[in-house]
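To: structure subgroup
Subject: Chain for Friday's discussion

All,

I'm putting the inputs and outputs inline so they're searchable in the archive.
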Amino acid sequence: MYFRLRALIVLGFFTGCASFAPPNATECYLVGLTCPEDARVERTTLKKLLDLPPPKQKAVIAVYEFKDLTGQRKPSTKMALFSTAVTQGADNYLIQALRSAGNGNWFVVVERKGLDHLTKERQLIKNTRKTYDGEGGNKLKPLLFAGIILEGGIVSYESDIQTGGNGARYLGIGNTNQYRKDDITVSIRAVLVQTSEVLLNVTVSKTILSAGVSRDVFRFTELGTELVEVETGYTQTEATGYATRAAIETAVYELVMEGLDKQLWDFNYLQEVK
């Protein structure tokens, strides 16, 4: 009876601990990594992108598509998954990053992905105005054309490039820490429309961190007749979408810096002083 009571106490203790907090700084230190939640506190590259001084002149840029070129599927050890490992909407992240440069003072981004819809809507407006206002009705302004086209995509997604962990067990009570590293790479090139010359090309990689902590107890409560085994754990993974967005923001920032080095554009120092 005593052993059964002790087993119930141990079981209740570990059941109560089943809702323990995410891996803390100490637990992440044990596996030699920065916790994913710590890595997501602030996107430092986005801040640098927003704080860029204004340019002398805005560049008009078109983004037709920014595809997932990896062909990777979500990893799974239990079944085949048909969901892609990375986002299929990376072009939205790219447009947002371009519009964030210098708080919107660096680039004018023109719509090209939905150009078919835009053209149909403009044609509808033209036909309506012609019907009700005649040939002398107000005409639409011409579409803005781009001087530079941004090409590229997500070129690599490598999972489990590094795994590891540690653990210990004493008198049937154990603790285990594990981690995993994935890697995502994006590439962007700026192409001059007039000559098709590739002006700039940047490639950026971002590490995706995963950390897990588990605790368990394994104990015989009587001489080989009864067994108590309890296990609980927690795993946290940095979102792939977040990593893709951070990599694209870094690539846009590097694109601006490389363009400055090659004197394709320059800061408006007079406006910066004002």
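Points worth raising on Friday:
The longest helix spans residues 240-261.
Confidence is low (pLDDT under 50) at residues 1-34, 36-42.

D.
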